[in-house]
């Protein structure tokens, strides 16, 4: 079971990452100039980017107890994660992939 504190620890451990309040005041994690993860205000779900819409569909189909989406994210490679349903290792993989997809290449080259 993962928590917001786990998200924070993992996200802030990535190069160039910092925390900032998002749209409704909930926490988000960014690298200049892009956001790579945030917590939704209404349900506490984590929002992350994945490699493609196809990857998103695979995650949604594989485990709907962990992953979901809303109409707002249709057509976008973004998935919503129910934190209580994921373990910390899987959470780390999801956050790192999202960071990798959104961070400047100067940071990602150093990290991998």
From TrEMBL:
Superkingdom assignment: Bacteria
Protein name (Swiss-Prot/TrEMBL): YdhG-like domain-containing protein
Organism, as annotated: Mycolicibacillus trivialis
